[in-house]
Automatic annotation (TrEMBL):
Lineage summary: Bacteria, Bacillati, Actinomycetota, Actinomycetes, Geodermatophilales
Domain annotation Carbohydrate kinase FGGY C-terminal: ranges: 257-451
Species annotation: Geodermatophilus obscurus
Family membership noted in the UniProt record: Belongs to the FGGY kinase family.
Alphabetized Gene3D superfamilies for the sequence: 3.30.420.40
GO BP, one annotated term: carbohydrate metabolic process
SUPFAM superfamilies found in the cross-reference section: Actin-like ATPase domain (SSF53067)
GO MF term list: kinase activity; phosphotransferase activity, alcohol group as acceptor
InterPro entries: ATPase_NBD, Carb_kinase_FGGY, Carb_kinase_FGGY_CS, FGGY_C, FGGY_Carb_Kinase, FGGY_N
Keywords assigned by UniProt, alphabetized: Kinase, Transferase
Boundaries of every Carbohydrate kinase FGGY N-terminal domain copy: 4-248
Protein name, entry field: Gluconate kinase, FGGY family
Length: 514
């Protein structure tokens, strides 16, 4: 079969999949790397390791394809959003890559909200004003070290690094990744003048923005040699991981939402053009000219159960398959607790939170804790808290006039029936689980097939992608979650000042400047 490689460069691993026009994943390779957290608020990657991992994963999946007599006819790229890395004119990194999770710019996001500039920036760029965005990372760097900001030849992200590693040439990125920087006008198609002024960078320090279907002519000679591919193999610039997850799960038609539920989570729908929530709860990122993705990301997903395994069970130092087994055991225990966790409410903001509030400084909390509550109650309440947060994103869809009738879910957490049942009840919608867990890499491959002319209509992906029968929401649980969801909002709002004060009293060594 003729196949396209979907190469997905993420926060902790690069995954490569091969897929043909039937929409099935034929081969999968994953190459991991560590996320560095040298101090509170930091979240960095070694950019050289990330670039090397792209070549390693590509070489390995091409070997697997040859073994089954498949022919690789193209490569299509997916990249994690919101990264920032200094680069020279040839695309070589000049420092660490700050990931979406790096929170050192939180104060600058608060300042833009306080001075009234945040709504306009969100409206024009589609990116919420939050520490995750390169706009804010650059603004923080400008305050810390303006000379360095001005002297760096280029600023890029994950996509620019991978393109430089595989293809070389002038610095380029795709419209999807550009639309997630907070610097790019989603309606004008140019770098936004006010955003550039806030960030303190010039447009010529950023890459040229190309359509997500743009085809770059071939590979660097050393990459062709390492992978065994012809040097003229087409390289589709591709898109960002978030929007490609919708494509890879077949959630590209109206009223079909995608939920990604792995370590973190997100809920997204596809619309035909740039659409920004007037209340500024949702992002809007590009997929293609007539497919734009609106949604909200939450920082905490399956990570809350992994935390529970470390804090409430014997999970300290347990990794890999043993950690997965422990997580599954805790979820099995929690499934024995009725919906509502016996009156226990969890704000699962262990890693802060993004949608729908995009507020800095949130921490986790249990509300309503009583003596009779035990570990299963705490675990179930944490799962419910994550699903309720995604339901708040769904509520923002409704308020913005974006109806949802069906949910397609992917990610490691949806292997658990408790997660899927709780998600269906919190959203009060049927949930179908994707057959393949590699939605983002598959989405990249499908976009590559589209760019190369083998998949003329992206909407065909809805029929191509295999999903389970729907898990229907339990009516009693759905009603209970509907009644308790306002308590999540009220609790988060009421505790905001308390959590901010706790942050100020924290004696953990403070983060260093960017």
């Amino acid at each position: 079969m003729d196949v396209v490689v979907g190469l997905d460069s993420g926060t902790t691993a690069t995954k490569a999949v091969t897929a043909g026009v039937d929409g099935r994943v034929r081969d999968l390779v994953s190459v991991g790397y560590p996320l560095s957290v040298p101090a509170p608020g930091h979240a960095e990657l070694d950019p050289a390791r990330l670039a090397d991992a792209a070549v390693e994963a590509l070489a390995a999946v091409c070997t697997a394809a040859r073994e089954r007599d498949d022919r690789v006819v193209g490569i299509s790229l997916s990249a994690a959003m919101h990264g920032l890395v200094p680069m020279d004119d040839d695309g070589r990194p000049l420092g660490p890559l700050l990931t979406w999770a790096d929170a050192r710019a939180a104060g600058f996001a608060d300042a833009l909200r306080a001075d009234g500039r945040a709504p306009g920036l969100h409206e024009r760029t589609g990116t919420p004003v939050h520490a995750m965005a390169p706009l804010l990372k650059l603004a923080a760097l400008r305050a810390d070290d303006p000379d360095r900001l001005a002297s760096v030849p280029r600023w890029g992200g994950v996509k620019e690094l991978v393109v430089a590693a595989l293809h070389g040439g002038p610095q380029v990125l795709d419209r999807a990744c550009a639309s997630a920087t907070g610097l790019y006008g989603i309606r004008t198609g140019t770098w936004d003048a006010e955003a550039l002024q806030v960030a303190g960078v010039r447009a010529d320090q950023l890459g040229e923005v190309l359509p997500t279907t743009a085809v770059l002519p071939g590979l660097r000679p050393e990459v062709a040699a390492a992978t065994g591919l012809p040097a003229d193999t087409p390289l589709v610039i591709g898109a960002s991981d978030g929007v490609l997850a919708n494509l890879g799960i077949g959630a590209v038609r109206p009223e079909v939402a995608a939920v990604s539920l792995g370590t973190s989570g997100a809920m997204r729908v596809v619309v035909p053009g740039p659409t920004v929530d007037p209340a500024h709860r949702l992002f809007c990122y590009a997929l293609t000219d007539d497919h734009w993705v609106v949604g909200g990301a939450v920082n905490n997903g399956g990570s809350v159960v992994r935390w529970a395994a470390q804090a409430l069970a014997e999970g300290d130092g347990v990794t890999g398959e043993a950690a997965d087994v422990l997580d599954a055991r805790l979820l099995e225990e929690a499934a024995g607790v009725p919906a509502g966790s016996a009156g226990l409410l969890c704000l699962p903001y262990l890693l802060g939170e993004r949608a729908p509030w995009w507020r800095s400084g949130l921490r986790g909390a249990y509300v309503g804790l009583r003596r009779e509550h035990r570990r299963p109650h705490l675990v179930r309440a944490a799962v419910e808290g994550v699903c309720q947060q995604l339901a708040l994103v769904r509520d923002a869809f409704s308020a913005t006039g974006l109806p949802v009738a069906e949910v397609r879910a992917t990610g490691g957490a949806v292997a658990s029936s408790l997660w899927v049942q709780t998600l269906a009840a919190a959203l009060d919608l049927p949930v179908r689980v994707a057959d393949s867990p590699e939605g983002t890499g598959l989405g990249a491959a499908l976009l590559g097939l589209h760019a190369l002319g083998a998949l003329p209509d992206l909407d065909e992906a809805t029929a191509l992608i295999g999903v389970s029968d729907p898990v229907e929401p339990d009516p009693a649980a759905a009603e209970l979650y509907r009644r308790t969801r306002p308590l999540v909002e009220r609790s988060a709002s009421a505790l905001a000042d308390v959590l901010t004060t706790l942050d100020s009293l924290d004696d953990t060594p403070s983060a260093t400047p960017l």
